[in-house]
Specification:
The structure is a single chain. The strands form two sheets. Strands 1, 2, 3, 8 and 9 form a five-stranded parallel β-sheet that branches. This protein is α/β, with parallel strands linked by helices and 508 residues long. Strand 4 (186-187), helix 7 and strand 5 form a beta-alpha-beta unit. It has helices at residues 33-56, 69-75, 78-98, 104-125, 133-141, 162-180, 198-204, 214-218, 242-249, 293-321, 345-358, 366-371, 393-396, 401-418, 427-439, 442-449, 454-477, 482-492; strands at 10-18, 63-67, 145-148, 186-187, 209-212, 227-230, 236-239, 327-334, 361-364, 375-379. It has two domains: 10-149 and 184-254 and 319-379, 7-stranded beta/alpha barrel; 394-507, Families 57/38 glycoside transferase, middle domain (immunoglobulin/albumin-binding domain-like, Up-down Bundle), CATH 1.20.1430. The protein is 49% helix and 10% strand.
């Protein structure tokens, strides 16, 4: 829907990566299920609402949305839907109580939170009553968005040996196909992690495109202004344009740190709500000014206009550098940034998606960018990620050396146990593979390296490893105790009901 009266300047792709690790049945506060409930209420509901509203106007190719299989499994789980409904009810009760506060500022805060909770409850009683997949499927089927998948539990693929890397990816792709009726042709490579040769396994499993970070492509002599075919394959890699992406993402200069936006880190501890604005990045919590929704809305409009200008100028510059040949800008973010971390993010997102076409920018998906001819190559990429240093240090550094060693030993141990063929599916062996995949999640190393709920992450790592090792021992011995243990583990850690452990040794 690019404005025909404005000279087209190039193509923009927005990619959102929607992911949280397996949190169901693993604690509530301050991390655990509470983390998922907050992201669901403040990011997933409003972001999907924005996309549904734009799609209802006939808009197509809005963005590429990645939803990790491990998150989809939780958002579709009837038990978790019921838990979320209860959580929303408590949110509404707290807001209703605050709305009668003697302080008018707190009364206004309570009223706003009550309206937000009521909106969320209505969504859960309606379109979201069956989880996320029934909401996503019409957007995918209509062409409003492109959905990309990924490995089952979001492991850091470069550190996996080939059988586990392929098994995790195949399980994840199968899971998306079960939920949405189609197997995704694109993946969000967890942590944008890449090692040479991954493209061959992607091609073999039907993956046609994936994401890397800008420096991974630039270090190989490419430019983020083009997607590229990788190595000797026809698999296409897209890279983030960091100059544009960091206009939002940067913790120092990004829009979410603007003075009028609601401050994420400062709470009214009696109610649990956030009553103040950022004010400045150096203002102490007790000195922050009261949040003003009208001034925040003005800031959204200004920052959306600025971003559109940034994208347009970037594309104009690229065309000038390329003898008039239109370029490509890919900006990629965690979905949880929009709403959960940045309260006004969904409003900003809608404003940007409406304004870019009017500025002569073609907005499309990764698949649409390929169709538009934004593919060069081939390029032989080197190893990389979107983490600190753009290498693997976050997931393979000194702080997590013991986790890496644990993971390697567990993979070898379980692969050895499962290498003994069985003619029929075995729920015990399936659970052994499932528990191992949960142990291999990249989140645990990330949280330890970044010292973000590191204790929780280590506990989760240890628990999944302990469960998988014990089950492996019982399976190897043919011990009858394996069956009840597998059943108990499945009741707590039971995503991916289609998972078939017989496929793992065969992927070697």
């Amino acid at each position: 829907m690019t404005d025909p009266n404005v000279e087209p300047v190039g193509t923009f792709c927005l990619v959102l990566h929607t992911h949280l690790p397996w949190l169901a049945h693993h604690g509530a506060w301050p991390v655990g299920e509470e983390w998922l409930h907050q992201a669901w209420a403040t990011s997933y509901l409003p972001v999907l609402d924005v996309l549904d509203r734009l799609a209802s106007e006939g808009r197509r190719d809005l963005l590429t949305l990645g939803v990790t299989p491990v998150l989809a499994a939780q958002l579709d789980d009837p038990w978790f839907v019921d838990e979320f409904r209860t959580w929303l009810g408590f949110w509404q009760v707290r807001a209703e109580s605050l709305a009668s506060h003697r302080d008018p500022v707190m009364r206004d805060l309570g009223s706003r939170e009550f309206v937000a909770s009521q909106r969320a409850l209505s969504a859960l009683a309606g379109a979201w009553s069956g989880g996320m997949s029934p909401v996503l499927r019409p957007l995918v089927d209509s062409g409003a968005i492109e959905l990309v998948g990924g490995p089952a539990t979001h492991p850091f693929q470069p550190l996996l040996d080939r059988p586990w890397q392929r098994f995790a990816l195949r399980t994840g792709l199968d899971d998306t196909a079960v939920r949405l009726g189609r197997r995704p042709e694109g993946v969000w490579a967890p942590e944008c992690g890449y090692r040479p040769g991954l493209e061959d396994d992607y091609a073999d499993l039907g993956v046609r495109r994936f994401l890397v970070d800008g420096p991974t492509l630039q270090g190989a002599g490419g430019t983020t202004a083009d997607a590229v075919t990788v190595g000797d394959s026809d698999v296409v890699a897209f890279a983030r344009d960091l100059e544009v992406t960091y206009r939002v993402w940067s913790p120092r200069k990004g829009y979410p740190g603007g003075r009028w936006y609601r401050d994420f880190h400062t709470f009214d501890h009696a109610s649990g709500f956030r009553p103040v604005r950022v004010t400045s990045t150096t203002t102490p919590a007790h000195e922050k000014a009261t949040y003003d929704p009208e001034r925040a809305a003005e800031a959204v409009r200004a920052d959306a206009a600025d971003f559109v200008d940034v994208v347009r100028r970037r594309l104009v510059d690229l065309a000038a550098q390329r003898d008039g040949r239109p370029g490509l800008v890919v900006a990629a973010y965690d979905t949880e940034l929009f709403g959960h971390w940045w309260h006004e993010g969904p409003q900003w997102l809608e404003a940007v998606l409406r304004a870019l076409p009017a500025a002569g920018v073609r907005v499309t998906t990764l698949a649409g960018a390929i169709e538009a001819g934004h593919v060069a190559g081939p390029v032989h990429l080197a190893a990389g990620s979107w983490g600190s240093g753009k290498d693997w240090r976050v997931w393979d550094g000194e702080a997590v050396a013991d986790l890496v060693d644990d993971n390697e030993r567990l993979r070898d141990r379980v692969l050895k146990v499962l290498a003994i063929p069985t003619p029929d599916r075995d729920p015990v062996r399936d659970q052994l593979a499932r528990s191992t995949l949960l142990a291999l999640s990249s989140d645990w190393a990330f949280m330890v390296t970044k010292d973000s709920a590191a204790g929780y992450a280590r506990d989760r790592h240890d628990r999944h490893h302990r469960d998988a090792r014990l089950l492996a021992d019982l399976v190897e011995r043919g011990d009858a105790a394996a069956e009840p243990l597998a059943a108990r583990l499945h009741a707590v850690d039971g995503p991916f009901g289609h998972l078939d452990a017989r496929l793992l040794p065969g992927e070697a």
